[in-house]
Request: fold
Amino acid sequence: MGLGIWGVLGALVVGLAIGAIITYFITKPRTEQAYEDLQREIEQQRAALEKETENILDTTRAEAQEIRLEAERVAERRFKDIARAEERLDRRGDNLDQQAKRLETREQTLNKRQSRLDRRNNQLTKIEEEQREKLEEVAAMSTDEARKVLLQLVEQEAQQDLARQMREIENRAKETAEIQARKLVALAIQRVASDQVAEMVVSAVPLPSDDMKGRIIGRNGRNIRAFEQAAGVDIIVDDTPEAVTVSSFDPIRREVARRALAKLIADGRIHPARIEKLIKDATKEVNRDVSEAGEQAAYEANVHGLHPEILRMLGRLKYRTSYGQNQLLHAIEASKIAAILAAELGGDIEMAKMGALLHDLGKAMDHDQEGTHAMLGAEYAKRFRVPPLVINAIASHHHEVDQESVEAIIVEAADAISGARPGARRESLENYIKRVRTLEDIAASFDGVESAYALQAGREIRILVKPGKIDDLGAMRLSRDISKTIEESMQYPGQIQVTVIRETRAVGFAK
Reply:
């Protein structure tokens, strides 16, 4: 059996070998044909590649040839440009050489002229020195002395000419401006003149009888102490019959205390608790009156669109006075004057009215804050979106800032007219005497003044000068100098007229 298996295996191997030989001889022609086809295809691709490569080389050679030709043309143009530039430079070099030669020639000529001029200057200097020495011998004075005399003569002549021109200019200006100014001021004053009040820091409260004084004071003074502490004022109980006095520099507090005290006296129940209640009620009443006064002032001035806080602060001016002039009435009066002036001068009437109405707004708060009333009023108005034109008019009506519009100038003029018109303001005897003496002292301090007298409550000062020292033109200069000194050194409402009088007398005797 083992022999049979090996026989089968041998037959199988022989069959496989024979099949492989037969397969080889059958597939050999096909393989050779495929190999030949592949060789032909490779040859064709090689020929096509060689042809394409040759075309590319031809194209590249042509482009390289064109580039080379173009480069040669550019280089040729560059060479030509360089050659032309060199020619121009050569020509310029020649021109510069020629100019240098001409300059050298000129310099030599100038040097010769300078030498001649120097010699002439030396000669002139010698001649001038000789002439100066001869003049000094003839005039019997030195050069410096002669110069001083000449300068004094020139200065005196110039001052006389200046004074003469100033007088002519003033006369021409007065001919046209004074008539119109007087007309405008008189018109404004006549239309809006208002009553004045006296400036006081005390208020009197009448009593039904003198027995009420003891009740106001209270046991051991408790009632009067409670009242003064709650109201922030001083209560003066003296020998004045049937009256007590409320004293305070704050007019709002004084008015609150006056009303509260009047109600206490009428009610008769006077004790600390009642005092505090009535003072609170009086404070509310005064605040309400302040708001109503501000609204009424805006209505009378015909100014609209103001913030309620602005109106409330404006109403506080009802209880403020300046030189005896009520500040709320002054604001209304100034607003009306500003409207008239703006209408005559072609300004913005609404802005002028508002600026004049609010120009003293800071006086209602300057007891509580630091700063001038003009700047305080401008800062307060700025918080409530008042127009910038009006803010500038408020801040500049005392020249603390520059005036930026004609309306600001109108506000300043309206303020001055309202405060300076006859009877508008009053001042204490001490301030009046001090101002008059100051005016006379300022005038007497100038050289050539013989005497000075203040007239018309200090609104005019008349100055008598020595005629031997001050001539007519000098009198004009003196009046202007004194006016400027007064403006710079004094504060006063309105304006002060300075009159210089020069009088020459000739006295003879008949025998």
